[in-house]
């Protein structure tokens, strides 16, 4: 396969979700990524979790990604925002039986996205493939891979991460600024299934 409706650079969460959404609409996509996907399902690769909003979750269900989840994830029933130990804060509660979102381990999200993309009849995943040249014209794009293959599509999507080289090459500028804050991201295991009432009501 050397021709598709869309060529996507990057088989991360964004690139694979887009490929699956296109496939669900009957559009074809070729995903090019220099990485080896094998280690991505391991905890050591990315031990983080993602908060998937209820609308994103509806999208993942609609495009068939949720069918590949190893587990259903943890529903977000309440979000409490606190400023240190100051009284007050913000609180959001789920309504109408629909959670505010779902917590999913990134490795499960990545595995499900990849399984869905692999199952797509209109999707081709080219892992461990490096781009040698991109030739953009009025009528589309021709991508030359380092192994000599040439790919054609009317549209190229850059989903190659926050430091996207494709975005830079296209001259698309981004604004950066520093928050001058530091954050600690960690994974905690609860002793109990439900939080104590005093913590839950904060
Ligand atoms: C601490 C932290 C917590 C977060 N929590 C949340 C959360 O709770 N909920 C949420 O929605 N989001 C969260 N995010 C954001 C979310 O993780 C990112 O937005 C998302 O992972 C970005 O995915 P991506 O596919 O754009 O990029 P990446 O995951 O970086 O994937 C980019 C892909 O492009 C490939 N690539 C690189 N260069 C090239 C190239 N030249 N050609 C082709 N392919 C290339 C890479 O190999 C990689 O596979 C969090 C982020 C952080 C840092």
Can you describe this structure in just a few lines?
Helix content is 22%, strand content 27%.
CATH superfamily: FAD/NAD(P)-binding domain
Order of helices and strands: EHEEHEEEEHEEEEEHH
Poorly predicted runs: 198-202
Number of strands: 12
CATH second-level architecture: 3-Layer(bba) Sandwich
Bound molecules: flavin-adenine dinucleotide
How many H/I helical runs?
Answer: 5
Class inferred from helices and paired strands: alpha/beta
Overall mean confidence score, pLDDT: 91
Taken as a percent bin, the fraction of beta residues is 25-35%
* Name of the CATH class: Alpha Beta
Overall geometry comes to globular
CATH domain fold name: FAD/NAD(P)-binding domain
Strand line-up across the major sheet: 8-2-1-12
* Count of domain modules: 1
Textual characterization of the structure:
With 202 residues, this protein is of the alpha/beta class. It has one domain (2-201): 3-Layer(bba) Sandwich (FAD/NAD(P)-binding domain), CATH 3.50.50.60. It has helices at 13-24, 54-62, 106-119, 165-169, 197-200; strands at residues 6-9, 29-32, 49-53, 74-76, 78-81, 90-93, 101-105, 123-126, 131-137, 140-145, 150-153, 155-158. The strands form 4 sheets. The chain has a 4-stranded parallel beta sheet with strand order 8-2-1-12. The chain has a 3-stranded antiparallel beta sheet with strand order 3-7-4. The chain has a 3-stranded antiparallel beta sheet with strand order 9-10-11, with no helix packed on it. Flavin-adenine dinucleotide (FAD) binds next to helix 1 and strand 3. Flavin-adenine dinucleotide (FAD) is lined by residues 9-15, 32-35, 48, 50-51, 131, 159-161, 165, 185.
